[in-house]
Amino acid sequence: MKLTETLRMALGSLGVNKLRSALTMLGITIGVFSVIGVMTAVTALRGSIETGLSFLGSDIFQFSKWPSGFQSGGNNWRQYAIRRNITLAQGLRYQHLMEGTSDVVCLSVSNGGALAIYGGLKTTPDVNLVGTNENFPAANQYTIEAGRNLTTEDVELARPVVVIGQDIVQKLFPAESPLERRIKIKDHTYTVVGIFASKGSAFGRTQDGFAAIPITRFAVDFGASYQSLNIATQSPSQERYNDTVDKAITAMRIARELKPEDDNDFELASNDSLIAAFATVADTLQYGSLAISAIALLAAGVGIMNIMLVSVTERTKEIGIRKSIGARKASILTQFLVEAVAISLAGGLMGIVLGVLGGNGLAVMLKASVVFPWGWAAAGLLVCSVIGVGFGFYPALKAASLDPIEALRYE
Q1: Beta pairing class for 121-122 and 116-118
Q2: Whole-angstrom Cα distance, residue 8 to residue 14?
Q3: Alpha helices (runs of H) in 198-270, residue ranges in sequence order
Q4: What is the pLDDT of residues 66-117, one digit of tens each?
Q5: How crowded is residue 27: how many other Cβ atoms within 10 Å of its Cβ?
Q6: Neighbours of 322 (CB within 10 A)
Q7: What is the helix (H) or strand (E) element at residue 128, kind and residue range?
Q8: How far apart are CA 130 and CA 57, in angstroms?
Q9: Which positions ≥6 away from 90 have C-beta within 8 Å?
Q10: Is the distance from CB of 109 to CB of 226 less than 8 angstroms?
């Protein structure tokens, strides 16, 4: 019997019981969808790490009270909560100690959830008011589009000036230049001296909805101990990065007045550490998805075997007739194997399509690039083929081994 004829008969048999075949495929589809969807999303997000997680500039590291991305309420929350805030005085002393080692030391503290007002126009109450110094653009990869940046004199004199992001410009100044205009934020008035160029969004969040004022002005308006500072420092070069970090840790310990036997009571973060943390989370998601998918595919494989055994029972007389007119054991075996593999591959293809659409849908929501995980898709089809052969072999062998006389007698 020709292979093409065997394939035609196998696929025709599946078409006879469309609902049963579709329900059997569904188990495979769910298993493949779960792994392909997660892998697609993770692959897309990995490709956007440099722009999404690398909020620090090149060769820059940062000191803070809390670990990057730390959420309160965890098991280690109290360990960090009892730490002293990094104060403005400590930040200024650290900056002085780093003179000659790094020219870019950015002190910053933020007060989110602010409302900016100009005339009769208002922004939404989600403006992030940042107290910082003249090194903010270099440390956070921003550029000035119009006007000027904050200056050392602004910081030294605690001037009530502000540099605003594009979101504020669009909402408060749709038809005029904001330069030299006075806006009110949290009941304090500031003169606009500059505009940041748009940086777009990352992971679904805007990077242009903030206003930067001198950190000393922030201390005057909201209190010097309002929040703990973040301190970003840029190494002069990649070659001197490790040496700069070592000197910075020493300077930070001096600024914090720690004794030699005291542990560091601050956190050090860099782009590499943020990327490594994301990679750990991504790997965990991948392993979890693989485990869930393996269970789902195993259950789907059992379903295929069950359906194929039912099919063999229902078609016993058909098998007996075919054998009695000369059908070989290999032809019967091949036909039932093809049916099992066809069900498995069809479910796998549907799972891949849905997984790619779902994963890329999430990536688009998070402003990540769209990708197609060719490697995982190929692996998914291979696994589906193995499942079809592995779980369909016993029913196929049972069908091929039927005695034609006994099969013809079956009712």
Answers
A1: antiparallel
A2: 10
A3: 215-222, 241-255
A4: 886 544 445 567 778 888 899 999 999 999 999 989 888 999 998 878 899 9
A5: 23
A6: 20
A7: strand 127-132
A8: 17
A9: 229, 255, 256
A10: yes
